[in-house]
Amino acid sequence: MKRIFLFTAIFFLFTGVLAGCGTSGKTSGSSSDKEKIVIGYFPNINHVPAMVAKDNGYFEEQLGDGTKVEYKTFPDGSSFMTALKTGDIDAGLVGPGPAMNNYMTGADVKIIAGASTGGTVVLASEQSGVKSVNDFTGKSFITPAVGCTHDVQVETFLKEHGIESQRIGGTMKHVTGNPAQYAAMLKSGKVDIAVAPEPWAAVIQQETGAKVLIDHDEVSFGKTLPASVLVASGKSVKENPDRIQSIVDAHKQATEFIAENPEEAKEITIKDIKETTKQELSKEVVDQAWERIGFTYKVDSDAVQAFADSSYELKFLKEKPKFTDLIDTQFID
């Protein structure tokens, strides 16, 4: 128990740390003649392409010697999208939910490639008494944020089974929090059900013995929806298409490396997450999580639209979405 709480405290301290601050512009010191590009991502397995590209120097290779690449990690999609909108990052990986939600409120964001699929798992603690979806009524569940990708997935699934959160008139209490906290919260009884991205679902299973109720391929959109996407600002796409193409090419290299070298990619993942969160995941946890994830730079536009339509029906979006201008596939076609 002490180890879990220590990990949670350290995670909050170190998440978001990066080599420098800021975004495109001239760097200081001896490299003042180089333009700085900042890439954002999360310390979870849906974001492995960014970790692999970082470790192998793919962004540096594609962007050239005149560019200095830095990296910034985020705990959730809201903080990532804020950084993209303010220009603190130039591009990076985020869930489709935050990208769509911000697009609908006027944010200048473009999905320029896919990154991963799957990886959302719904678990219940032993003491919750929840054995199946039939036991969800009146229980509490936690997701990283309101309207995030994982939240929309599970609430779509619940609605299809006649269950709703209190937010839209149902009985289930919804709370939010960092996935690094979930194991402790389930153990303490603060929540009954966790909707967790990998590798945190595998960590929860290992540390708490929680039961998987809805697996990655059973939850709504689990097989088709991009779990993470590569995004940039529309301004960058318009004004710097060559730079965006280089970023996408580096991302494609990383995705292909993962397919060809899964064991080495796992080692990179373990190392990167440890550097960011100070938590060293076991090989067993990563192997288990890896089975629930797929990696691809392609984007299923139909799946994104269907997901968005569900977000609207669940009242996460105020207007019925049309994503004609959100997804730009010119860099991967």
TrEMBL record:
<dbReference type="GO" id="GO:0042626">
    <property type="term" value="F:ATPase-coupled transmembrane transporter activity"/>
</dbReference>
<keyword id="KW-1003">Cell membrane</keyword>
<dbReference type="InterPro" id="IPR001638">
    <property type="entry name" value="Solute-binding_3/MltF_N"/>
</dbReference>
<keyword id="KW-0472">Membrane</keyword>
<dbReference type="GO" id="GO:0005886">
    <property type="term" value="C:plasma membrane"/>
</dbReference>
<dbReference type="Pfam" id="PF13379">
    <property type="entry name" value="NMT1_2"/>
</dbReference>
<keyword id="KW-0449">Lipoprotein</keyword>
<dbReference type="GO" id="GO:0042597">
    <property type="term" value="C:periplasmic space"/>
</dbReference>
<keyword id="KW-0997">Cell inner membrane</keyword>
<dbReference type="InterPro" id="IPR010067">
    <property type="entry name" value="ABC_SsuA_sub-bd"/>
</dbReference>
<keyword id="KW-0813">Transport</keyword>
<feature type="signal peptide">
    <location>
        <begin position="1"/>
        <end position="19"/>
    </location>
</feature>
<keyword id="KW-0732">Signal</keyword>
<protein>
    <submittedName>
        <fullName>NitT/TauT family transport system substrate-binding protein</fullName>
    </submittedName>
</protein>
<feature type="domain" description="Solute-binding protein family 3/N-terminal">
    <location>
        <begin position="36"/>
        <end position="261"/>
    </location>
</feature>
<dbReference type="InterPro" id="IPR044527">
    <property type="entry name" value="NrtA/CpmA_ABC-bd_dom"/>
</dbReference>
<keyword id="KW-0564">Palmitate</keyword>
<comment type="similarity">
    <text>Belongs to the bacterial solute-binding protein SsuA/TauA family.</text>
</comment>
